[in-house]
């Protein structure tokens, strides 16, 4: 990590809250071997080819494109390790590179928009956000996560049916994953259970369900959305975070949307967010003064023959940057 850049950057931050008015910088992370679909690694370039950068700049002219993280070239190994994880070595190396690059992005004065790739990327992204926020505010900061996803992604290696790391990032961020992954970004937990909010859950494994209940983690499942509507849910979620954290990461897995509007994902689950529900959610997120990082994960181009999922993904990022109907 470029400590000189970081030190220089923090010295000129007279007002810590200015971190939330920084321009956004797009960073692709073509990581595709921690889950079910290797093709997710092509997501950043496919989205760029469909006009992502130009469209975001129409909404916010200060957006810059910083290219892609250089992913590790270590060999892929689908065999589960003794800890029960696939592709542990190459994924860890790639996430370490991602952490370093994101630390540089913060040091250069930007807030990142991270385009995956698979949701394991959040291990590095959240760790970099936490470290930056701690140094920027000058104390142990309270970092939150708004995790918008059909899946809880909080499995342990033992509870994971597949051994795929993209189903474990939140367990790692709680410092309860494989040790080599826990150490990315430093020793200890990167988040606390009370700073995590889910929206859109509808496919949860048994141990995940137990853990969410035991730790009293805030969950707005699709049932809550059915009962009270997306407007009430996102209002409650943002209020919850605003009262408890200094800043938060928005991590949006495109499979939270219903497969009828987002077929191009690796783990489709029926009954997800509608087109307008997903856009409304992102429109409301754009009004928050505490968004430090935006993540858009798990777009799979090979399953998106019509291009509608790419169009939705770009549109949701436009909404998150402030696009409105009027």
Would you mind describing this structure in some detail?
The chain is of the alpha/beta class and 326 residues long. It has one domain: Arginase, Chain A (3-Layer(aba) Sandwich). 38% of the residues lie in helices and 14% in strands. The protein contains twelve helices and eight strands. The chain has an eight-stranded parallel β-sheet with strand order 2-1-3-8-7-4-5-6, with helices on both faces. Helix 1 runs parallel beside helix 4, helix 9 packs across helix 10 and helix 11 runs parallel beside helix 12. The longest helix has 20 residues. It starts with a helix and ends in a 6-residue tail after the last helix.
What is the CATH C level class, in words? Alpha Beta
Q: Strands of the largest sheet, in order across it?
A: 2-1-3-8-7-4-5-6
> How many domains comprise the coordinates?
1
What is the CA-atom radius of gyration, in angstroms?
18 Å
Strands, count: 8
Question: Which stretches of 5+ consecutive residues score pLDDT under 50?
Answer: 1-16
Morphology call: globular
Provide key terms for this protein.
about 325 residues, disordered N terminus, alpha/beta, Arginase, Chain A, 12 helices, eight-stranded parallel beta sheet
Protein topology:
Elements: H1 3-11, E1 24-29, H2 43-49, H3 52-59, E2 64-68, H4 88-107, E3 111-116, H5 122-137, E4 143-148, H6 169-173, H7 179-182, E5 196-201, H8 206-214, E6 218-221, H9 222-228, H10 230-244, E7 247-253, H11 275-285, E8 291-297, H12 308-320
Parallel strand pairs: 1-2, 1-3, 3-8, 4-5, 4-7, 5-6, 7-8
Helix pairs in contact: 1-4, 4-5, 9-10, 10-11, 11-12
